[in-house]
Write a structure and sequence with these properties.
By secondary structure, the protein is an alpha+beta fold. Strand 15 and strand 16 form a beta hairpin. Helix 4 packs across helix 5 and helix 4 runs antiparallel to helix 6. It is elongated. It is a multi-pass membrane protein.
Length: about 300
């Protein structure tokens, strides 16, 4: 009978931290190493930081920046107590509201600048408002226009016989209703190696695939690597892979036909996610009218070779 990976591996373990030597979490997220001596301040690269922070943080940051900027100009206006007509002298709130009306190009209602000092500050603030609007518009456009791939990878990779040869298999699915043109996938085996001199280093070896290119990636793609005598996985076990901190790194790229831009996806399979003597449950079928159907409810399901 088919079994779900989630029935044998709890969600807690599925979301657990990756192995010490891994570069990517099982879900495809980057895993950052601790680098001694590096500047860890996120905002030293402000543009990159503002593009990569989540939306839940991005919007509050913009709001905080808007409040702080108007607060600064409000304090500047307060240096001239009578510079704003109909504003209460020394009242921060009146000066703040006047600053918001100025920087946002809102027509003045009651409060207007009446001194030369206030008019000069209004000119400076109006110019800064134009610059800020252009910068924020550019950042928003950059965040919205960044291409992304919605690629689903099977939670487990399996090793089973295919044409009489032990073959590593996993699959990927395009979750969008379009096609990825000229899709390419690469599979790299990474492991921890210790030299004769005791130097530890991370080694990488790209694994040859039965098919590494797909002209049109629309539904599902089963990626296969033959585990023969030339494969570094030949003779390996779960325990031996754990001992050398081995993992399989998947990189998939192609051109999204809708966005007309390159999209990328990555995934990682650690030893616990590689199932020996298992195979993937078939998810492709054909409807009576001739159309093909992909059953993603069985996407992560595997079955033992003994019960297949």
């Amino acid at each position: 009978m088919a079994n779900r990976l989630s029935d044998r591996i709890s969600p807690k373990n599925w979301r657990a931290a990756p192995a010490p030597g891994s570069y990517i979490t099982p879900g495809g997220m980057k895993r950052f190493a601790i680098i001694k001596g590096q500047d860890h301040t996120r905002w030293t690269d402000f543009y990159h930081a503002i593009l990569t922070i989540p939306w839940a943080l991005f919007i509050p940051v913009l709001g905080l920046f808007f409040v702080l900027l108007n607060s600064v100009f409000a304090l500047i206006y307060m240096l001239d107590p009578g510079g704003i007509a109909y504003a209460r002298p020394g009242n921060f709130w009146d000066a703040f509201i006047f600053s918001v009306q100025t920087i946002a190009s809102i027509n003045y209602s009651v409060m207007v600048p009446k001194s030369h000092y206030a008019n000069v500050v209004v000119v400076v603030e109006a110019f800064s408002g134009i610059i800020n609007l252009a910068l924020i518009t550019g950042v928003l456009f950059s965040r919205f226009s960044r291409p992304s791939a919605r690629i689903l990878f099977s939670q487990a990779a399996v090793i089973t016989n295919f044409d009489g040869v032990p073959t590593l298999m996993f699959r990927a699915a395009n979750q969008r209703g379009n096609q990825i043109l000229g899709a390419n996938v690469s599979l790299t085996y990474a492991w921890q190696h210790t030299t004769q001199e005791g130097l530890m280093m991370r080694r990488f070896r790209e694994l040859p695939l039965v098919r590494a290119h797909s002209p049109l990636f629309a539904l599902s793609w089963t990626v296969m690597h033959r585990v023969d005598e030339t494969s570094p996985l030949y003779g390996q076990t779960t325990e031996s892979l754990k001992a050398c901190q081995g993992e399989l790194i998947v990189l998939l790229s192609g051109t999204d036909e809708t966005l007309a831009d390159m999209v990328f996806a990555r995934h990682s399979y650690q030893p616990d996610r590689i199932l020996w003597n298992h195979r993937l449950v078939d998810i492709l079928s054909r409807l009576p009218d001739g159309r093909r159907m992909v059953d993603l409810t069985k996407f992560h399901d595997t079955v033992s070779d003994e019960t297949a």
